[in-house]
Structure of Adenylate cyclase:
Amino acid sequence: MGTDERGTLEALKAYRREVIDPAIAGHNGRIVKTTGDGMLVEFASAVGAVTCAMAIQGQMAERNGGNSPKIAFRIGINVGDIIIDSDDIFGDGVNLAARVENECVPGGVYLSSNAFEQVRGKTEFDFDDLGERSLKNIDRPVRLFAVRPRSIPGGKPQVQAARSLALPDKPSIAVLPFTNMSGDPEQEYFADGIVEDIITALSQFKSLFVIARNSSFTYKGKPVDIKRVGRELGVRYVLEGSVRRSGNRVRITGQLIEAATGAHIWAEKIDGAMADVFDLQDEVTSRVAGAIEPSIRFAEIGRANTKPTYNLGAYDLFLRAISRYYQFTKPDNDMAVCHLSAATELDSTYTLAKAFLSFNHVTRWNQGWGEMGDREKSLWLAREAIADDSNDAAVLCYAGHALGFWGEYDRALAVLERAARLNVNNSQVLSSLGWVMNYACVDPDRAILSFERAMRLSPRDHEVALMLSGMANANLIAGRDEAALSAAQRAIDENPRFAPALRIRIVALAHSGRLDEAKAATAEYLRLDPGFTISTRVPNYRDPAFCQRYHEALRTVGLPK
C-alpha cells in the first residue's frame, strides 16, 4: 500500500473476483463480512473450509510468482459455537478463528485443534503439529496445526509451515538490533554496539537464557513480527529499541515484549549527550540490563501463578515462593517457606532456592515471624549454596546477605564483592552489598552509593523499600540523623510493613530529640511486632559504639531489652 496504493487495491479486487470469491462459492462457503483487508467466512464443513483455504493459497502462490503485486494472506480456521445475529455471527468460535489467523505465517493455513480433529484423515493434505500457543484474550493455551500439500517425491509443498523451537526451561530473551532513526549511518555502529553490550550484560544473569548476537542480528534491517521472532528463536521475551540523534543529544528507547501475546512488559526512554559516546553506551547498557531482569522475573511470577497447581516443578515453586514473599505477611511468608522447601526437595541441586530460603530466614527474623533455630538454618543453607555454586551472582547475593546479617561480616563482604564482579548490573547484589557494609559498619558513604546504584538500575523494583532502608541505616551509622529519617520515611511509604525501616525511623527521631514523635512511631511499630525485644530483633552490628547508640535510642522510647 505504501509503495502503490492504487495498484494494490486493484490487485486485491482482482484476487477477490478471480480467486477468492469463486473458491468460497465452490466449497459452499458464505462470506459473512469483510474487514478492510480481511474477511470472515462461514462453512458448513471443516473439510470444505480447509480445502477452500488451500485452493486459495495455492493459486495465490502461483500468481505471486509473476509480475503482479506480492499480496499474501493468512488463513485461520476454527470449529466452535457461534451466535447468529441477522446475517452476522459472533462468539468464542469466531474470536478463536481470528486469533489462529493472527498466528499464521503469510501464505499459510493454520487450524485450531478443534478444527484438526474434524478433518484428520479426511483430506489430501498433511498437517504439522505446532504445539500449544498462548493466544491473546483466550484463557487457555490452544494447540495449532499447519496445513501443507501432501509431500510428493521430488516435489515441494507450496505452503511451508514455520516450525517453533521449544522454549528453554528458564526465561528466554532475544535482543533485536536497535533501529537507527537518525538518518546518520555513523549512528548504526553506536546502535549495534549498545545491543551487543546489552546481550553481554544480560548473559551475566544465570537466571536468563539469552540468544547470541549472531542469531539476533539476522533480523537487522528487516520488518519484524515479534511473535514470529519468538517462535523462530524459541524465546518468551524480545527486546527491541531505537536510537535517535539530534545535534549532540541522543535518545535511546527500549521495550520488552512477551512474544506469544505481544504484551509490553517494560519500556523506557534514556536521553544523553554524545560528548563521551562510550560512557553513554555503558550507562544505557547498565540501565537496560538492570531493569530487564527484574521485569522478566515478575512476569515469570505472574505466569507461574496461572499454572495449574497439580503440575509444578522446582522452578515454578520458586517463582510462587517469591510471589508470596512480596505480599509481606506472615501467612504468605509461611507459604513461601513451604514452596521453597518443596523446590529443594524436588531438586537438591537448586542452589538459588536454597540461597533465597536462607535470606528469607533473615526476613522472618527481622519481621518478628521467626523461631528458634533460624540463625543455624539460615547459615547452613547459605554455606551449602555457596559451596555448590560460587559463580552465580544471584546465589551469592542472597547467601552473602544472610552471612552478613548473622555476623560473618568478612566472608559476606568477600562473597558479595565476587557477586558484584560477576554481574555489575544486578540491583539485588548491590543492595545486599550495601546492607552487609552496614552490618559491618564500614564506609557508610560507599554503602549509600551502592544503594543509589541499585535503585538507578531498577527504579521500580519490589525491593525499593529494602534499598531505601539501607540508605537510612547507612546515614544513621554516619551520624546523619535527618538524612536517615528522610530515607526511612520514603521506605515506609513504599512498604509500611517493612520492620527495619520503622525501627530506623524510631532511632533517628530519638537521636534528633523528637521523643514524642518517636514514642508515637513506637506504638505503631508494636502493633506490627508486639513480641519485639531489642536483644532478639536488632541486627548484630560490628561496631559496639553504634550498637550502644542504637540500643539506647530504643530503650529511651520504652522498647523492652
Observations:
- The chain is about 55% helix and 15% strand.
- The longest helix spans residues 277-305.
- Confidence is low (pLDDT under 50) at residues 152-162.
- Residues 241 and 254 are 4 Å apart (CA to CA).
